[in-house]
Design goal:
Layout (H helix, E strand, L loop, with lengths): L2 H24 L7 H10 L1 H29 L2 H34 L1 H11 L11 H16 L5 H8 L14 H24 L5 H18 L3
Helix pairs in contact: 1-3, 1-8, 2-3, 2-4, 2-5, 3-4, 4-5, 4-6, 6-7, 7-8
Length: 225
C-alpha cells in the first residue's frame, strides 16, 4: 500500500467510528421509531441534522476502511466480504438519503406531514429491499476472513461482527445495540488505523496545504447546483 492510501485508510479507520458514535449520542435521548425522530427534527433541527450527518459521514468513511482491511486479507473470502460489506454500506447511504428527505419535510412542512409521508412510503420496494441481507451478512464474513488470515486479533474480529447488530432501515434512533455495534467497530478498526498511520511515511504537507482549500472550494461549488 502506497503512502497516500495508507494515510487515507488509517484516518478513515479512526474517524469512521468516532463520527458514528457522535451521531448516535446526539440522537440518544430521542425514542427509536420514526415518528419520534421526525418530531425531534421539527423541534430540534440543528441537533438532529448534525446527528444524521455524522452517522452518514461515518458510514461513508467505513468504505475505504473496509476496502483497506479486506485488501490485507488477500483471499477469496476477503474479496467476497468486501463486496458484501460495501453493498451494505451503499444500502445504508440509500437509507440516509430517505432520512434526509424526511427530516427536511419535518422541518418545512411539520412532523405530522412528514410522519404520514414516511408511513405511506415505508413499505415500498426498491433495489436495496432485496439487498438488505448484505448489511447483516457482510460484517461476520469479513471478520471471519480477517481472523483466519491473521489480520485481526480474535477480539477485534468479534468487534467487527458486532456491526451486524446495528439497526437497519430509515429513521432509526439510537439503541443499546447501536452503541455496542459502534464500540465493536471501534475496537476492530481504530488499532488498525493507528498501525497504518505509524507505518506510513510523513505526508507531503505542501500537497496538503494545496488540497485542503481546493477540496473546500469544490465542496462549496457543489452546493450551488
Amino acid at each position: 500500500m502506497t503512502r497516500e492510501p495508507r494515510w487515507i485508510a488509517g484516518l478513515a479507520m479512526i474517524a469512521a467510528p468516532l463520527l458514528l458514535l457522535t451521531g448516535m449520542l446526539l440522537r440518544l435521548p430521542v425514542p427509536f421509531f420514526f415518528p419520534h425522530q421526525l418530531a425531534a427534527a421539527a423541534d430540534h433541527p440543528g441537533r438532529m441534522s448534525a446527528a444524521y450527518t455524522c452517522v452518514l459521514a461515518g458510514t461513508l468513511l467505513l468504505c475505504p476502511a473496509v476496502l483497506a482491511l479486506s485488501a490485507r486479507v488477500r483471499s477469496g473470502p476477503g474479496a467476497l466480504a468486501a463486496v458484501l460489506v460495501v453493498t451494505g454500506l451503499f444500502a445504508r447511504v440509500f437509507h440516509a438519503g430517505f432520512d434526509q428527505a424526511a427530516l427536511a419535510l419535518a422541518r418545512h412542512r411539520g412532523a405530522g406531514f412528514a410522519t404520514a409521508f414516511v408511513a405511506d412510503a415505508y413499505g415500498d420496494a426498491h433495489l436495496f429491499s432485496y439487498l438488505s441481507f448484505t448489511i447483516l451478512l457482510g460484517w461476520p464474513v469479513l471478520a471471519f476472513a480477517a481472523w483466519r488470515a491473521g489480520v485481526l486479533h480474535p477480539v477485534q474480529a468479534v468487534g467487527l461482527v458486532a456491526m451486524a447488530a446495528m439497526p437497519l432501515g430509515v429513521l432509526k434512533g439510537t439503541t443499546v445495540l447501536s452503541l455496542v455495534a459502534v464500540a465493536g467497530v471501534a475496537v476492530a478498526l481504530v488499532p488498525e488505523g493507528l498501525r497504518l498511520l505509524r507505518a506510513a511515511p510523513r505526508p507531503d504537507f505542501r500537497l496538503v496545504a494545496v488540497a485542503v482549500p481546493v477540496v473546500g472550494l469544490l465542496a462549496y461549488v457543489s452546493t450551488l447546483g
